[in-house]
Amino acid sequence: MTTAQILLVDDHPTLRQGLAQLISLEDNLDVVAQAGSGDEAISLAIKHAPDLILLDLNMKGLSGIDTLIALKRAEVQSKIVIFTVSDSESDVLQAIKFNTDGYLLKDSEPEELIEKINLAIQGEFVISNPLTQILARSLRPNSKKVSLLENLTQRELQNLKLIAAGKSNKDIANKLGIAETTVKVHVKNLLKKLGLKSRVEAAVWAVEHKISH
After folding, report:
1. Has residue 189 been placed in a domain?
2. Which residues carry this modification: 4-aspartylphosphate (predicted)?
3. N or C, which end of the chain is more exposed by having fewer CB within 10 Å?
4. Is residue 197 part of a domain?
């Protein structure tokens, strides 16, 4: 089993330790380093090249967003997920604007947190369940889009439902018994038909319109 390396970034040592202990219970996850500031996080990220960085939003000194921007500029390839107490719509949208790989709340249930961490490492955009509707509202889907479902093929609709369920292209391919390259084509087509730009928007759109899998 491959062990994914994680960097924790938070200016509260007690929280970092508690989170590290929770993660250490998972055989496939390992906290390789901890940072108490944005500057330290950048240095450690370059040194360790972790698979995932859990980044606090509100820190003294360099803020979480500023740290996120700096990490991107430094061409750090790690997945970067915001981990915060803030459920503010503006904070969520700002993080997404600067290409975060996820946005998780600190009061998440341990099981949900570990599940989301694993999904993020696999390349999925993750967001705490209570924030899904905030993101959906921000996209302000036009009611006319409901009729756009009629333009989707049955296979594209199946793909959309599985995207909404948080499945990766590989998972969808296995579920539907088709090639992963075929899944990518279906996803590209359904995004174009729905006038959406990304899988994240597609997932949120599906939730907003109660399209269950």
Report:
1. yes
2. 56
3. N
4. yes
| 81, β-bridge pairs | 54, 102
| E-state strands within the chain | 4-9, 29-35, 52-55, 79-84, 102-105, 126-127
Burial class (CB within 10 angstroms; exposed 0-12, middle 13-18, buried 19+) of 128 = buried
Q: pTM of the prediction?
A: 0.66
Contact 32, 3 (CB under 8 A): no
What are the structure tokens assigned to 8, written together? 């924790």
Tell me which of 135, 165, 184 is where a domain ends. 135
**Do 118 and 195 share a domain, yes or no?**
no
Dihedral sign for Cα 145, 147, 151, 157, please. positive
Number of structural domains, the chain?
Answer: 2
For 89, residues 6+ apart whose C-beta sits below 8 A from its C-beta are 134, 137, 138
Residues 73 and 122 in one domain: yes
181 and 128 share one domain: no
* 213: in domain: no
